[in-house]
Amino acid sequence: MLITKLKSREDLQSLLPEKVFVLLCNGCKEVSFPEREIEELISEFLTADKVTGVLTTDYICNPENLSLRLKRRRAMIDEADGVLVFSCGVGVQTVSDLLEGRAVYAGCDTIRLPGFQGVTPLEYDCGQCGQCYLNLTGGICPVTACSKSLVNGQCGGAQNGRCEVDPNMECGWERIYRRLEAVGRLDAIKCPTQIRNFAIDANKSH
Amino acid sequence: MKITELFDRGEFVVSAEVGPPKGIHIDGLIEEAKKYLGGITAVNVTDNQSSVMRLGSLAVCRQLLDAGLTPIYQLTCRDRNRIALQSDLLSAAMFGIENILCLTGDHTSLGDHPGAKPVFDLDSVSLLHTVCQLESGVDLGGNPLVGEPPKFAKGAVVSPCSDSIDAQLAKMERKVLAGCDYFQTQAVFEPEKFIAFMERARQFGKPVQLGIIIPKSAGMCRYMNNNVAGVHVPDDMLDELAADKERAKAGITGVEIAARVIRECRPYCQGIHIMALGWESKVPALLKQAGI
Ligand code: SF4
Ligand code: SF4
Questions:
Q1: CA angle A49, A54, A57 (to 5 degrees)
Q2: Which is deepest, A60, A69, A156, B271, by most CB within 10 Å?
Q3: What is the pTM for the complete model shown?
């Protein structure tokens, strides 16, 4: 079980480009979404003429379904400077991968709740760290795609683009660098030093 | 003495590395360091290198200091969380250790305790940030330190011949932004790659020490090519080492190769860092041949 929490207004404001296409996942039974708050925020953005289109759907972590739905909204997506996704970390990563070359922004942090955990039949994984880093990493999760869960860049161990721990695995930070380069967001490298917070408590923060 | 003072004076800084043993007797290590490394600027002490459990870096640094040498205390983030790292930094400062090198560290699965928990609570960048925080008199939790805060020359590493060079330079930039004062590099055998790297790294304005390994044999180099990230020994050097096994074994060929690399790279760097890997005794000859 996991829950998502809306990122702060300040965080989002400083992050987002002029125009966004909004993708809102309304669910699967594993995730509890802050639906009302997200709706409020979207209507604020709509009033401010920030939004080129909204797609509300479920299971955005299913790439086949999602790519069909996104195709139908291609024009709205093309009109925007980026895609803002309200979902758990897995959903954001699915969208980032599908819309390669396009800036994708995470609107939520994903936090673990004790109990049953959603099973994701995908290569994307979310460690429910509670401080979603996807906005700094081009939509690739550093917590799960890097063997050391590093949040400040590549270690010295990558060889031929592979991870020092498992040569069958691509180095997550090599992927992150290439993705940031492709979407023109290498400036994210100059963000302040990131420090994990292991004291995040789902009950307190919600 | 902080090695940054020497960089500031424009001196060419030479350091070398020693690895603590898996045991408690270090008379031999200290004697060798005094004999062969006494003339150089500073001596790095590795921190459970390659995730192999050994005597502690901090304790050996202290012994070197007592023996009249200048130690560089290497800290990795693999085995300790932010509380233990900060505590050890305070201990180092209390002992009078003024130079540190901040590393993320190899993964535990590569070492001799593969089942150990990999910590990585911090990484090289956030560790540098943490040291700056301590230097300002406040710990990472925001609590004031009592009395004069510690002051260190803060180093980090970079891998100039890595095949992920863009990601490495990006990380180097983050280290500079987090407060890094100087860099030591992974071992270089390809001067042209190092020079190309320095063209791009110069913008950061931080001193860089060229990393040097004295190659012992063609077999050792082949092993490094296959297993050590960011190290590549070109074929002509392998041939050179294989041509006369006796000369290679005596260290003559290896010292020649290393001295050549140093001479070619010297105009582009601010010092060298020698990883002697047991060949500390060859360091004086190497420096002589390299003209340092
Ligand atoms: S950074 Fe990774 S683990 Fe953390 S919330 Fe985002 S997707 Fe999940
Ligand atoms: S090699 Fe890449 S994926 Fe592996 S631990 Fe280092 S940075 Fe992370």
A1: 165
A2: A60
A3: 0.88
Count Cβ atoms below 10 Å from residue B88 Cβ, excluding itself.
18
Q: How many residues does chain B have?
A: 292
d(CA A2, CA A118): 8
* pLDDT (0 to 100) of residue A63: 86
Q: What is the DSSP string of A95-146?
A: HHHHTTTS-EEE-EEEEE-SS------SS-----BSS--GGGTTT--HHHHS
Cα(A87)–Cα(B274) distance, integer angstroms: 50
Q: What is the DSSP letter of B230?
A: T
Average pLDDT over residues A175-197: 93
Read off the tokens for B228: 């050590």
CA nearest to B3, candidates B290, B289, B273, B266:
B273
Site of tokens 């909004």? A22
- Candidates B123, B157, B173, partner chain A, best to mutate (most A CBs within 10 A): B123
B106-138 pLDDT tens trace: 999 999 999 999 999 999 999 999 999 999 999
The answer to whether the CB of B71 falls within 8 A of the CB of B59 is no
**Ligand 1 and A129: CB distance under 6 A:** yes
What is the residue with the minimal CA distance to atom 8 of ligand 1?
A126
How many helices (H) and strands (E) chain B has is answered by: 12, 8
Sign of the alpha-carbon torsion through A187, A189, A190, A192: positive
Angle at B105 between CA B104 and CA B108, to 5 degrees: 130
Q: Exposed (0-12), middle (13-18) or buried (19+): which is B192, by Cβ within 10 Å?
A: exposed
- Give me the domains of chain B, ranges plus CATH numbers: 3-290 (3.20.20.220)
Using a 6 Å cutoff on CB, does residue A104 contact ligand 1?
no
Q: What does the pLDDT look like over A55-68, one tens digit per residue?
A: 998 888 888 888 89
Written as one string, the DSSP assignment of A142-153 is HHHHSTT--SSS
CA A200, CA A110: separation in Å to the nearest integer? 10
pLDDT at B172 over 80: yes
A136 alpha carbon – ligand 1 mean position (Å): 11
